[in-house]
Specification:
The chain is α/β, with parallel strands linked by helices. The chain has helices spanning 6-12, 50-65, 74-90, 92-103, 107-129, 167-181, 195-207, 221-230, 243-252, 278-290, 310-323, 342-357, 389-392, 408-416, 431-440, 473-478, and strands at residues 18-20, 23-25, 30-34, 41-46, 135-137, 146-154, 157-161, 184-188, 214-216, 236-240, 259-263, 269-272, 302-306, 361-364, 368-369, 375-376, 379-382, 399-405, 423-427, 445-448, 467-468, 481-489. It has a seven-stranded mixed β-sheet, with helices on both faces. Helix 3 runs antiparallel to helix 5 (107-129), helix 4 runs antiparallel to helix 7 and helix 5 (107-129) packs parallel to helix 6 (167-181). The protein starts with 5 loop residues before the first helix and ends with a strand. It binds adenosine-5'-diphosphate. Adenosine-5'-diphosphate binds next to helix 8 and helix 9.
């Protein structure tokens, strides 16, 4: 087993409080935190109350209006966000330890992948602080001359609601652009994985983000999350989670017309043509569904293989599935960690059972693994009907369906036959065909001969029921701004 940074045990040895107005508040109802690899409690934080939501919203609103953050020069804010990135890097073993213990990550992937990516996210948006501009124009008002300019101003208090499947990454993807835009933030991490977000709040303070600008409130989604969404002082909600909750947020945001960015579910197709480089496509398709045990919003959960290579693709995916070694993220030999919780594993198992009953052929996997923790075997299902639940519904586990197609049109038909539209990948050596398909695929992000590559400069988000709005890139920053036009009569 990997020896964790000594700071992890120290951090977990005490109850961690919610982060409100620069203070850590611990005298609340405890919220125990568990290791999904063992089921054991590893630490605890507390549940925020409705009073805490009011307090955080008022403090964040005050901070926004007295301009203690957005009033700093862009260069100063940039320096502070760059310092956040440095602190994330220098605390990488500790943060990776928390992500592994609380989020079920493989330690190596957290240390060398996710945590550095969080630092890069802060660097990327630090760069934007000094570059976000509006525009000027010459209005055509008859008989009078005006000077017109357009500003991109911070939107106000932003509620950031994150899921459990990549707690630190999701928090960084939202905090970095929100702070770069000049907003005040209230982060509500998922109840299962609050610890790394609470630690991140400390690093933000250490880097120089003033008190009152960022608050972190662990709590139940439908209680504290919903209270944030309905709060009149919250101007913007950036949410990543399930489509069902996203729909609820649309309803809850209606009263105040709160601005929403929603990154929701996915059922992303992986389309493999006969001319693809199968030596790359098959392992990549396996990675697309099995990395992080399939608990990834852009997971490639539906593979469509052209008929001539269908058997090879099914066999290849099954080989990759069987080669996985399930175990705790702290064991360097593990290649796949656990699912996040017992109820979640129960949902995954029930969906696979339903697929089996509906006539799907479970080629490999299809069962829980081990007596400890919430492991589920990587699973390949062939022959499931296109209209069956296993092909249409998000599983959020290491479960992939494989189906055959004959030509480009039928591949497109299968791929687009989904209420979701987050991501897709196309595997072919024929660039023209790939571009034709990319034009017609109903997905917010499309990879050709790759899958799931995170790129901060490229906007990511969904069409159809996969969401509203985009994260990353300039669009991810503009999601935290309100455009305002100013006209001056000369
Ligand atoms: P997941 O399946 O990833 O847990 P959820 O959509 O249930 O997805 O949760 C994502 C985030 O949304 C979590 O932080 C959760 O606490 C929060 N949440 C859940 N229900 C609501 C709600 N009604 N209003 C606001 N936030 C919610």
């Amino acid at each position: 087993m990997i020896d964790l940074d000594s700071g992890v045990a120290l951090y977990l040895s005490r109850r961690r409080g919610l982060s409100l107005n620069g203070r850590e508040i611990t005298h609340r109802v405890p919220l125990p935190c568990h290791d999904p690899a063992t089921g054991e409690q590893i630490g605890e934080t507390v549940l925020a109350t409705h009073d805490d939501v009011d307090c955080a919203a008022e403090a964040a609103h005050r901070a926004f209006h007295d301009k203690r953050w957005r009033g700093k020069t862009p260069a100063e804010r940039q320096r502070i966000l760059l310092r956040v990135a440095e602190l994330i890097d220098s605390h990488a073993p500790l943060l990776a330890g928390l992500e592994t213990l609380n989020g079920g990550k493989l330690y190596g992937a957290a240390l060398h992948g996710e945590v550095p990516h969080c630092a890069e996210t802060f660097r990327y948006y630090a760069g934007w602080v000094t570059k976000l501009g509006g525009g000027t124009f010459e209005p055509s008002v008859p008989g009078a001359r005006h000077h017109g300019f357009v500003r991109e101003d911070p939107i106000g208090v932003a509620a950031l609601i994150t899921p459990w499947n990549g707690a630190l990454v999701a928090a960084s993807w939202k905090l970095a652009p929100a702070l770069a835009a000049g907003c005040s933030c209230i982060l509500k991490p998922a109840e299962l994985t609050p610890l790394s977000s609470l630690y991140l709040a400390r690093l933000l303070a250490e880097a120089g983000v003033p008190d009152g600008v960022v608050h972190v409130l662990p709590g139940e989604g439908r209680d504290i999350g919903a209270a944030l969404v309905r709060h009149p002082l919250v101007s913007k909600v950036s949410f990543t989670g399930s489509t069902a909750v996203g729909e609820q947020l649309v309803r809850d945001s209606a009263t105040n017309l709160t601005r929403l960015s929603l990154e929701l579910g996915g059922k992303s197709p992986v389309i493999i043509f006969e001319d693809a480089d199968l030596e790359r496509a098959i392992p990549a398709a396996a990675d697309a569904i099995f990395s992080n045990a399939g608990q990834v919003c852009v997971a490639g959960s539906r593979v469509y293989a052209q008929r001539g290579i269908y058997d090879r693709v099914v066999a290849g995916l099954a080989d990759h599935a069987r080669a996985h070694r399930l175990g705790p993220g702290l064991d360097p030999a593990s290649t796949m960690g656990p699912l996040i919780s017992d109820p979640h594993r129960g949902r995954v198992a029930a969906m696979v059972e339903a697929a089996r009953t509906a006539g799907g052929d479970v080629v490999t996997g299809g069962s829980a693994v081990g007596d400890e923790g919430y492991f589920y075997a990587p699973t390949v299902i062939a022959g499931a009907r296109q209209d069956s639940a296993i092909v249409q519904e998000e599983v959020f586990g290491p479960v992939v369906t494989v189906a055959a197609f004959d030509d480009e049109n039928s591949a497109l038909g299968f791929a687009n036959d989904s209420r979701y539209g987050l991501a897709a990948s196309i595997w072919t050596r024929d660039a023209a065909r790939a571009l034709r398909l990319a034009e017609d695929l109903e997905a917010g992000i499309i990879w050709i001969n790759d899958h799931g590559i995170p790129e901060l400069a490229m906007p990511i988000g969904g069409v159809k029921k996969s969401g509203i709005g985009r994260e990353h890139g300039r669009q991810g920053l503009l999601a935290f701004t309100e455009t305002r036009s100013v006209m001056l009569r000369l």
